[in-house]
Write a structure and sequence with these properties.
The complex is a heterodimer of chains A (111) and B (350). With 111 residues, chain A is mostly helical. The N and C termini of chain A lie far apart (56 Å). The model of chain A has no long low-confidence stretch (mean pLDDT 95). With 350 residues, chain B is α/β, with parallel strands linked by helices. Helices cover 35% and strands 10% of the residues of chain B. Chain B has an 8-stranded mixed sheet with strand order 6-5-4-3-2-1-7-8. The chains are: A mainly alpha (111), B alpha/beta (350).
Chain lengths: 111, 350
């Protein structure tokens, strides 16, 4: 067994998940490929969204993949960092907006 | 300014050492298939030359820039320059070739002291597409080069120039400090004489190659982004963008090894292998001539000193018929031209 939970080389093996369930694996990869095609949003915009989500999901494989994908598309490091801040803002906003619940509770119990 | 691998006596200035690296390691232990085995899977081995379409001539390895990823290992310290005698031999071939494209490259081809004479003579042969690969900054390097846009126009030259990004930081990181600003000024000078503008016959194309250890993205999407940014920021027009993959040789190979990206990059190239790109790979319709007149299947094989597999090996003995159907010399660097949409000096091929 690997000595660490994550191995960068495992990303290359991602396609192999179809070996244990071909139907569902293929359906996933077909869906995944379709999602990232040029559509109402450009593939470049989708790549930046994926990079931001990769960070909020804290998926090291996804961060590697979409940093590289962004570079391939000519995305600058400034654009990448702004995208990550969007993810971070939503994450922190999602935490902080729950404080209203805390405030409500305090007001109800100790108002 | 940095020095070439050759001037630094770097191990990789030795082409045999480069071929050794490309043949050993992950390719020797079977982690990745060799290029020969890969094209055998799709019955494309041996790769054979077709009818000649592009005659590419390297006028010398001297350059005013020392770009990080240069596959030529060019720079001001490189003294290999084509002599007037070899140029004359090339002109004899240009007059009778069946190729529709003549492609002058370097180094900075303009730094050859007989460059203008050669262009004047070659332009008389009436070849359909006459390309000069200009690094742009040479136009601004010295007063004697300021008239190049007019000179190119006079001889109907198709200008193809490198531009790794539309931002200063990424361009200068790869090509040297100040290169972006000089390139922008040179592009504006070319636009002023009519190059690159909509509907103009004076063709101005840009070459994009990635600034690091990753493959180029979609050529059309990159072209759109380049056009938008250069027009908005600098009022610059150009015709087409060619997206070129960095091949793992020379200074780029040195960079890959030093940055510990070599294996990942080779995996990326092999994973992106596209058999339909093999059909149109440029070595099958090109002859590359070196500064000293030797013949190669492509510019990359020239830099690896892999001469054509033909009875005819030098421009002095040139015979287009004998060069047809020759076996193309391949090695693992060839994966660079068959990844994704493929890559050539004219951009994607599939």
């Amino acid at each position: 067994m690997s000595k660490t939970y994550y191995d960068a080389a495992d990303l290359r093996k991602f396609g192999r998940i179809t070996e244990w369930n071909e139907e569902l694996g293929n359906k996933f990869f077909d869906y995944y490929g379709k999602v990232f095609e040029e559509g109402a949003l450009t593939a470049r915009e989708k790549s930046l969204i994926a990079l931001a989500v990769a960070h909020t999901e804290q998926c090291p494989y996804c961060i590697d993949a979409y940093t590289k994908d962004g570079l391939q598309r000519g995305v600058t490091k400034e654009e990448m960092m702004e995208a990550v801040h969007v993810g971070a803002a939503i994450k922190s906003g999602a935490t902080l907006v729950h404080s209203v619940q805390m405030m409500n509770k305090v007001n109800k119990l100790d108002g | 300014m940095k020095k070439s691998l050759k001037a630094r006596n770097n191990d990789l200035a030795n082409t045999e050492r480069q071929l050794e690296i490309l043949s050993n390691g992950i390719f020797a232990d079977g982690k990745l298939p060799t290029f020969a085995n890969k094209i055998k899977e799709t019955n494309q081995f041996p790769l054979l030359a077709k009818k000649l379409e592009i005659l590419q001539i390297n006028l010398g390895y001297m350059c005013n820039q020392v770009c990080t990823h240069c596959h030529v290992d060019a720079g001001p310290d490189r003294k290999e320059i084509m002599t007037i005698e070899t140029m004359q031999q090339c002109l004899d071939v240009i007059k009778k070739t069946g190729a529709h494209t003549l492609d002058l490259t370097g180094g900075a081809p303009e730094m050859n002291p007989n460059f203008k004479w050669f262009v004047e003579e070659a332009s008389r042969a009436g070849i359909k597409d006459f390309i000069v690969r200009s690094n742009l900054t040479i136009i601004r390097a010295n007063k004697k080069y300021h008239d190049l846009p007019q000179f190119f126009k006079k001889h109907g030259v198709h200008v193809v120039s490198s531009m790794p990004h539309w931002t200063r930081g990424k361009t200068d990181k790869q090509r040297g400090d100040g290169v972006f600003d000089k390139s922008i000024k040179a592009l504006q000078m070319l636009n002023e004489v009519g190059y690159g503008t909509k509907g103009s016959d004076l063709k101005l194309d840009l070459v994009y190659n990635p600034s690091g250890a990753f493959l180029p993205g979609d050529q059309m999407a990159l072209e759109n982004d380049f056009k938008k940014a250069l027009k908005t920021d600098f009022n610059i027009d150009f015709h087409n963008l060619f997206a070129i993959t960095n091949l793992p040789i020379s200074r780029f190979l040195d960079y890959l090894i030093a940055s510990e990206n070599y294996e990942d990059y080779m995996f990326a190239l092999v994973e992106a292998y596209n058999p339909s790109a093999v059909e149109n790979v440029m070595c099958t319709n090109t002859i590359s001539v070196s500064w000293d007149g030797w013949l190669y299947d492509c510019d990359f094989n020239q830099m690896l000193n892999l001469k054509v597999a033909s009875k005819v090996k030098h421009i002095a003995d040139y015979n287009e018929e004998l060069l047809q159907n020759r076996n193309i010399i391949i090695n693992q660097h060839c994966y660079g031209c068959t990844a994704g949409a493929g890559s050539s000096c004219q951009g994607v091929v599939a």
